[in-house]
Amino acid sequence: MQQNEEFAMIVHDIRKPLAAIELFLRAIGSTESVEKKMHLLKSSSQIQRSVQKANTLLDNLLGSSSEIITRELCYIEQFISTALKDLQDQFAEKNIRFTYDLKVRTLMVDRQKIERVFSNLITNAIEAMPSEGEISFSTSYIEIDSLDFVKITIANSESYIPPELREQIFKPFVTLNKNHGTGLGLAICEKLIRFHGGQISCSSSLNLGTQFSFLLPAGTEAEGAPGFTLPTHSTCLGIEEPCISASKDDMATQQEIVALLDNKPLTMAIIDDDEIYTDMLCKQIKKLTCGLIYPVVASTFLEGFRLVLKELPQIILIDLDLKDPIFNGIDLIKS
Q1: How many whole angstroms separate alpha carbon 244 and alpha carbon 257?
Q2: Which of 96, 243, 290, 315 lies at 20 to 30 Å from 10 by C-alpha?
């Protein structure tokens, strides 16, 4: 039985990168546009990461359940960033905010094993929310028997786990409201955290949502530690080919826009018949506004008219030439 559970846990981890590959192939197969296919192929870094992740899991098949820990200094932001990038294609369309209160940044852990912990917990958090909500990440120091640990909490709104299930949730094959789940993700987390001398717990309420807190050995932050930029919204995920390169000027622009918006989300209607242009424009808007401006798109006069009536956007961007034999962008503005 123990051997079967170990095998199932390995299969669980391999299924996630394979799912990302499947989604990418479906996207290519569902479009007839040659230009769109080429655009998808150019932005295939997510698939390359998924293939590499699956290969790494297979290479470490025999040692993946080993209690041997190879410790190194790791940064919590990097674990969060890696997990969110791996999940970008599956969850970027959800309206989810990310907040951070990282008082402690460093861990002394086995990088590969703890990557699995963050990936599984963040996956569960996003899947537990219907379509929108908030995921928060927080850290703090805690001392146990003269040893320094970091308490890491990953919490999400809009979900609830009843007490009777919370008592069983870290056992293999226990799942909640996940038709495609195996019930192994949390069992893997508990085991890998225990290998590091830590522990994990779950709390949940109807008003506040669900949070998982776990302890891992603390690391010592060295001088010249790297800085990380973490997304504040799910619509910011996966923007790897922006029209403007990610530079310090971009970051300053982003911060200025967010400050002007005062964290109040807006809807922008983009009405243009150039699919590649609108796709890149939407990515850039989401990137520079951290998801506070949410673009919706139409390609014709009639689609644009219906879109504006339905969404009531605060901002409208219209191409004057909509390739319509009768109406143009000015006519739409007048309407």
Answers
A1: 15
A2: 96
Q: How far apart are CA 180 and CA 165, in angstroms?
A: 18
CA distances from 294 to 95, 126, 238, 284, 300 (A): 9, 19, 15, 11, 20
- Identity of the amino acid at 7: F
222 token code pair: 């060295």
| Residues 152/216, Cβ–Cβ less than 8 Å | yes
Mean pLDDT of the chain: 77
Rounded CA gap, 271 and 320, in Å? Answer: 9
List of residues 6+ apart from 177 with CB closer than 8 A? 128
User: Number of helices (H) and strands (E), helices first, in the chain?
Assistant: 12, 10
Assigned token pair, 276: 């590649």
- The Cα 25–Cα 2 span in angstroms is 35
Residue 139's beta-bridge partner residues?
A: 102, 152
User: Does the predicted TM-score (pTM) go above 0.70?
Assistant: no
- Per-residue pLDDT, 31: 67
| Helix, strand, or coil (residue 270) | strand
Side-chain half-sphere exposure of 131, counting CA atoms within 13 A: 0
**What was the pLDDT predicted at 94?**
76
Three-state DSSP class for residue 313 = coil
Angle at 311 between CA 29 and CA 280, to 5 degrees: 45
Contact 216, 193 (CB under 8 A): yes
Rg (CA), the chain: 22
| pLDDT bucket at 15, cuts 50 / 70 / 90 | low
Tokens matching residue 240: 């790897």
Q: What's the rounded Cα separation, in Å, for the pair 217 and 178?
A: 31
Alpha-carbon distance 232 to 253, whole Å? 15
The pair phi, psi for residue 146, each rounded to 5°, is: 65, 15
Specify the amino acid at residue 247: S
Segments in the chain forming alpha helices (H): 2-30, 34-42, 45-59, 76-86, 88-91, 111-128, 163-166, 185-195, 248-261, 275-288, 301-311, 329-334
Token couple for 257: 């826009």
